[in-house]
Design a protein that fits this description.
alpha/beta, two-stranded parallel sheet, globular, binds iron/sulfur cluster
């Protein structure tokens, strides 16, 4: 009994020491990350959450960044990502259509603006973009969104194999490109074999060289281990992701992952908190799968360190109404009106915090 108490105190002290290290501007090591991801008892996880909350408060204050997405080309994708309803490899109920006209994008931007959403991401289900007429059309849609001035123009358009394509997107007015690594390098081939982890890393290289901000995270709950999640968090730190979306698998009927058992909500909250320790200044955004997997525990994502929220419907699944999310933020004393149009970079967040009122 006494020995157990000593162990519990040692764990509590170690979590606190790592929390203080991060608050002081330090970076935790891979080994320290592994320790946090391996925590199991409810008491330790709640301890971790309270430190993650302090770290979020320290670097982000009470500001919450909101993003929305619009599917500009749906279904029929050549890739075989095992979680995805839009892959042509699987029989799902997901809609299929080609590149949409400007009007629905204008409507989505209007709606996003009304809800105080910072960024609207144009998302397309295809392998990626090469030079040609489709790129010309996509660039036109990005320019229209950017010049409309209602939200920041973001996009997630798959793999890029060429610097010119990344530069064209930037010139069109794109500010931030969404390109998830999805999981660790080790686990990646277990959910996709039509392209590689390195294809994704290479794409991010072109985007950064073009001067674009990077929105990159992954999906948890696909059967990966805690070590895989830890590896993903450290890789995202290495590549310099600015926004880190965490999706939680929502198994889609017809996909190879349709029967994967859900992650327990506490494991999800622990993962968010560990990401906050590894990525203290980044926007950690909770995206797809939160409603179905967290249910009534959704407000706890902010205590776990989340600083951003995907609102409105996801690509192939329905989210809770935006009004309910906005009410949740108001009830928690959090402010969703985070710099409506510009991109607040991590270093600027720190400066803003340090500046006198
Ligand atoms: S996740 Fe993207 S690349 Fe993979 S199948 Fe779905 S739409 Fe295609």
């Amino acid at each position: 009994m006494l020995a157990t108490q000593v162990d519990a105190n040692a764990i509590r002290e170690k979590i606190a020491a790592l929390g203080l290290k991060v608050l002081a501007g330090g970076q935790i090591t891979r080994e320290e990350g592994s320790f946090l991801f391996s925590l199991e008892s409810t008491a330790d996880i709640f301890d971790l959450l309270s430190w993650a909350n302090r770290i979020r408060e320290h670097f982000k204050g009470n500001k919450i960044h909101l993003c929305s997405i619009v599917n500009v080309k749906a279904g029929g994708c050549s890739e075989n990502c095992s979680f995805c309803a839009q892959s042509a490899t699987y029989q799902t109920q997901s809609p299929k259509y080609g590149l949409i006209d400007p009007e629905p994008i204008e409507g989505a931007a209007e709606e996003a603006n009304k809800n105080g959403v910072t960024a609207l991401g144009l998302v397309a289900a295809w392998k990626g973009l090469t030079e040609g007429p489709v790129l010309d059309d996509v660039c036109r849609r990005i320019s229209e969104l950017s010049q409309g001035g209602k939200t920041r123009a973001d996009a997630s358009l798959g793999i890029i194999k060429n610097q010119t394509v990344a530069n064209r997107l930037k010139e069109a007015g794109l500010e931030c490109y969404g390109h998830n690594l999805e999981s660790s390098r080790r686990f990646f081939p277990q959910h996709c074999t039509t392209h590689t982890f390195d294809d994704r890393i290479e794409t991010i290289g072109y985007l950064k060289k073009a001067g674009l901000k990077i929105c990159s995270g992954g999906i948890i709950g696909m059967g990966e281990t805690g070590e895989d999640r830890c590896d993903l968090a450290f890789t995202l730190r290495e590549i310099g992701a600015n926004v880190v979306p965490i999706n939680i698998l929502n198994p889609i009927k017809g996909t190879p992952f349709e029967d994967v058992p859900p992650l327990p909500p506490l494991e999800i909250l622990k993962t968010i908190a560990c990401f906050r320790f590894v990525l203290p200044k980044q926007e950690i955004m909770i995206a797809g799968g939160r409603t179905v997997n967290l249910r009534d525990l959704q407000p706890m994502i902010f205590m776990a360190g989340a600083s951003a929220l995907m609102v409105g419907n996801y690509l192939t699944t329905v989210n809770q109404p935006v009004e309910k999310d906005l009410q949740m933020l108001r009830d928690l004393g959090l402010d969703p009106n985070w710099d409506k149009h510009g991109f607040i970079d991590q270093e600027e967040c720190v400066e803003a915090e340090a500046a006198p009122a």
